[in-house]
Amino acid sequence: MLNLQEIERARARLAGRVHRTPLMSATLLGQQAGVSLHLKCESLQKTGSFKVRGALNKLAQLDPQERARGVVAVSAGNHAQALAWGAAAAGVKCTVVMPATASRTKADASRGYGAEVILFGDTGQAFDKAHALAKEHGYVFVHPFEDEQVVAGAGTVGLEILDDLGDVDAVVVPIGGGGLIAGVATAIKARASKARVFGVEPTGAASMRKSLDEGRPVRLDSVKTIADGLAPMMAGNLAFEVVRQHVDDVVLVSDDEIADAMKRLLTYTKLLAEGAGAAATAAVLAGKLPLPRGGRVVSILSGGNVDAERLKQLL
Question: Which residue in the list 110, 207, 211, 302 is annotated as catalytic?
Fold first, then answer.
């Protein structure tokens, strides 16, 4: 099981290589929700999301033979961009497989960072393609959430929250495959056991909520949500175990609630969040969580990579 020591070691590896993103107060939004709200702005991170933390931590631990072979990953976009950027800086060949419906902006950005981008099928088919490429070429498969080194990197977000805010009542985290919440919950519960950790999923991609209800990781038949970064069809085994042990609850938000949170974040805080990045704040604003009145709450804005056309439609 992932532990605090692994996350601390990840932070040492990442020192000076990623942004220590700001933890900003959101007074008006907090008043609307009845809490003292703070936003952890991973939307301002390198490549526009928290994903670079896990990608760099993984790349830093490849041996010379693995570096020479190169890496391959599956991603809706943010993991692809993060790994492409990190691999280019490390001189490692990078291939990413993205679903055919992936954001053109995210695909173009991944190419811009130096990756070979393959658009292929749905999410499940993209995973199969990436594994086939890894077997054929000897690439190291870098899983977006089912990898302790990747998750440990994501967990450094939790350490920064505690360092900057100290006494926190609740931390609210969006869930896709679960890597971010697994890392953050491990860090938060190890260093501040009284703080509550809540996960948030879209109603149309509720793999973790369904897994918890059934008592085992499950795979969804289909997903449908505007939050493409939260749309894996399965919950990771690693993340499921951490969430089951350390997360206080996982709640669902609708696409309308996510879109409303995106608008309110942009209007009142001047922060641009993609659908996945706004989901945690959506749960706070929609009253989906049992938060103490006036409590100190942190909502993680996990990413800000949104297509201009999609943003125009939502606004």
Answer: 302
Domain boundary pick from 122, 141, 160: 141
> pLDDT 10s per residue in the chain (315 long)?
799 999 999 999 999 999 999 999 999 999 999 999 999 999 999 999 999 999 999 999 999 999 999 999 998 889 999 999 999 999 999 999 998 988 888 899 999 999 999 999 988 889 999 999 999 999 999 999 999 999 999 999 999 999 999 889 999 999 999 999 999 999 999 997 789 999 999 999 999 999 999 999 999 988 999 998 898 888 889 999 999 999 999 999 999 999 999 999 999 999 999 999 999 999 999 999 999 999 999 999 999 998 887 788 877
168 contacts 295 by C-beta, under 8 angstroms: no
The answer to whether 194 is a known catalytic residue is no
Residues 161 and 70 in one domain: no
Residue of 51, 58, 106, 189 marked catalytic: 51
**38/119 same-domain check:** no
- Domain containing 87 — which CATH number? 3.40.50.1100
Those residues whose C-beta lies under 8 Å from the C-beta of residue 201, and which sit 6 or more positions away, are 174, 175, 207, 208, 209, 230, 250, 251, 252, 253, 279
Q: Are residues 8 and 80 in the same domain?
A: no
Q: Count up the domains in the chain and report the number.
A: 2
Q: Is 302 an annotated catalytic residue?
A: yes
3-class SS of residue 220: coil
